[in-house]
Automatic annotation (TrEMBL), chains A, B:
Keywords, ordered alphabetically: FAD, Flavoprotein, Oxidoreductase
UniProt-listed Gene3D superfamilies: 3.30.465.10, 3.30.70.2740, Vanillyl-alcohol Oxidase, Chain A, domain 4 (1.10.45.10)
Lineage: Bacteria, Bacillati, Actinomycetota, Actinomycetes, Micromonosporales
InterPro entries: FAD-bd_oxidored_4_C (IPR004113), FAD-bd_PCMH (IPR016166), FAD-bd_PCMH-like_sf (IPR036318), FAD-bd_PCMH_sub2 (IPR016169), FAD-linked_Oxase-like_C (IPR016164), FAD-linked_OxidoTrans_Type4 (IPR051914), Oxid_FAD_bind_N (IPR006094), Vanillyl_alc_oxidase_C-sub2 (IPR016171)
GO molecular-function terms, A-Z: FAD binding; oxidoreductase activity
The species this protein was found in: Actinoplanes awajinensis subsp. mycoplanecinus
Cofactor(s) of this protein: FAD
Family, similarity comment: Belongs to the FAD-binding oxidoreductase/transferase type 4 family.
Pfam families for the chain: FAD-oxidase_C, FAD_binding_4
Top-level taxon in the UniProt lineage: Bacteria
Protein name: FAD-linked oxidase
Amino acid sequence: MRLDLDLPAGLDLIVDPDVLAGLSHDDAEWAPYGTALAAVRPTNTAEVRRVVAACAARRIPIVPRGAGTGLSGGANAVDGAMILDLSRMNRIVEIDAENMTATVQPGVVNDDLKAAVAAHGLWYPPDPASAPWSTIGGNVSTNAGGLCCLKYGVTRDYVLGLEAVVGGPAGEYGTAVRLGRRTTKGVSGYDLAGLFTGSEGTFGVITEVTLRLRPARREAPRTVVGAFGSVVAAGEAVAAITRAGLLPAALELLDRTCLRAVEDWKHLGLADDAAALLLAQLDTPGLAGDEEATAVADVFRTAGALWSEQSTDEVEAEALFAARRLAYPALERLGPVLTEDVCVPRSRVPEMLSSIERIADRNGITIATIAHAGDGNLHPLILAPAGDDSARQAAQAAFEEILTAAIAMGGTVTGEHGVGLLKRAGMRQELSAGVLAMQVAVKQTLDPLNLFNPGKVVG
Amino acid sequence: MRLDLDLPAGLDLIVDPDVLAGLSHDDAEWAPYGTALAAVRPTNTAEVRRVVAACAARRIPIVPRGAGTGLSGGANAVDGAMILDLSRMNRIVEIDAENMTATVQPGVVNDDLKAAVAAHGLWYPPDPASAPWSTIGGNVSTNAGGLCCLKYGVTRDYVLGLEAVVGGPAGEYGTAVRLGRRTTKGVSGYDLAGLFTGSEGTFGVITEVTLRLRPARREAPRTVVGAFGSVVAAGEAVAAITRAGLLPAALELLDRTCLRAVEDWKHLGLADDAAALLLAQLDTPGLAGDEEATAVADVFRTAGALWSEQSTDEVEAEALFAARRLAYPALERLGPVLTEDVCVPRSRVPEMLSSIERIADRNGITIATIAHAGDGNLHPLILAPAGDDSARQAAQAAFEEILTAAIAMGGTVTGEHGVGLLKRAGMRQELSAGVLAMQVAVKQTLDPLNLFNPGKVVG
């Protein structure tokens, strides 16, 4: 079946309903998705160009996807869409060690890139918890964050340039353009590479990305753990870290529910007697790093930690961060998880954590919280037993209440997961009518036929 | 005289031709500028809104300016324009030490902000050489860089959010919008704050900026100096630094002409027997920083330095960096200086320096080079005796040849000064027709009447 589309000869059109269904959504719980027309798995830019041109000729919407690990529904299909599965465009095109850059196809998995550049003594810092599975294309499209953002920034800070297949002002749909640059600095024209970063595939299909790298860290970071009697007390400690002028590479919070879920699944032998743990990672090299680790442990104690210690055991430290990474899948094993992603000013973290507790109580549900606490980026995980409709409704109500609370604290409805489908209402609440109109106008300008991932972000 | 404009009562309209002429251009040599209608010096957003609305009603173009230290003509008046001098909007609205942010009006001078946040144990890294005079509004509008970009990024990396007075999709001209956020992370909608950064006032007037800060550095950085027999040899050492996995906070190059001009002016007692000096600053704290400084000195020697030493004398180290900052004004004392701002991949720095030497020879002119060498960002300063028309033409020819050479090496025509007027032809050479069309389309969307700084960037 060719659907009368003018596609490249070697490119199979996937129309099997089961396969299509699997490709029609990401990991966002209860985010709606439609019935796609078909899917393709291109391996190069030329094929993407042909597919986009063919779809445009028939006004078929195009929904790009990477690994489908998104948590906002940004990769969910709309009815009649062509799914552009980019997971086979997974070639590392170039690692330029002399200039500390890497150029990759969008389907390269984050951890694969990390491993490849590590072999050259280099480091790609952005580390979303999905790094073992999520792709650079998806990371760029959502401007993914992760654990080390406080000190090292987000994906946006590493995107120098990209290639995208677009339509509209640049030419016919199916035109490839190169945005941005390969150099460290550059201000030649508007920052369209930056604009595409975080645009969730709504301006075009990213087919190549040039990323900035850093020299590899020379030694393993120190880990400091603090156990607290409440999540709010842990939040107070986070604020105290900033006040002390300390800049950890990561500062993560895990509550008891998360710890237990991981322990029940993986049996890592974690302490789970506290209401919340804070995990700090300090990567300043040498004695200065040791001093910073000691200072963090002191701040934890002064802020009322039940106990606090510097982990001298690398295996144990790794287990703790593994627990952080495994918290989401561990909870997902237990039933549907609605994942929040609010970000508030760091000083409001304790208040936001209190607020989340109140919202959970009010709605009679369990909310487990993991957080990139140092960034003020909280992931309350709203749990609901499978098949329980009233629990689902309570979870969805809590979801919206948390967004409203974050906005009231000067925060945002999405720190790193993107707007997708689930945060569209929240975004409309957060941004002014004028700003929303600017967003819509930019989308209409760059995608006049509204073919690229329609309905997402501003849809 | 009110020019029939509906302006706020307290706002004086400046129409004195001499004052207007002084406000009608920046520091870009030989960049054309027109005759402005008038100028105003608003002190708050409400006044800017009124001025923009009044100008729009009469279709009067609006040219915003800060301190006028730009080097591309981005703040130059067009005929009949209203100059919006924002230098009196110089209030630091808030320093939020707990969240490591500062919110400022656009007329705040970079060094004044640095001093104010230093009192809170904080640091605003972007440090263009113009930092003692240039304003945050100008820095944001050009996405200014500086010396510490290699390790700490450019202005863009510090802009969290901003307020701008706009027109078009957001509403009538004179509408104020808040773009971006106050939080460390945030992906709620397209990155319009990022898009405005570096847009040179062509989308609207920036009236407030919220900036990310970092903790102050705990100790003075180490300085390493290397003297080289040729600028190309110094360029080779720059490439070797990257290969060694070293990440200095600054890595600057100064050639003999620059050093002598500073010495003749300021008598700092600098060595000027070498063809080029490299100045590296290492700010990793403690023993690790000492080790890095030693490693840099070793790389300099291995790369063929005449001599290389770690400066143990803070006064001497400061004098060397002062020389770097003073190079441009020192040369400007001698006559017109046409300032280049190309950026090439770091590994091509030696080749680009050779190319600059050949271009100088071919055109029979003197080019003094200062460079943020670690960024690959070179500022060849093209000298021409005042009043010598053929020298001016030779300088202008060399200017365009250097742009072409940089593009051929995978570089960009402007690393940090902006397109303004002087780099418009270079930008058209650098970017594809498709990308230029996208740039124009975005400008037309956000400023449909083409009133905001018309003719700049894409004009």
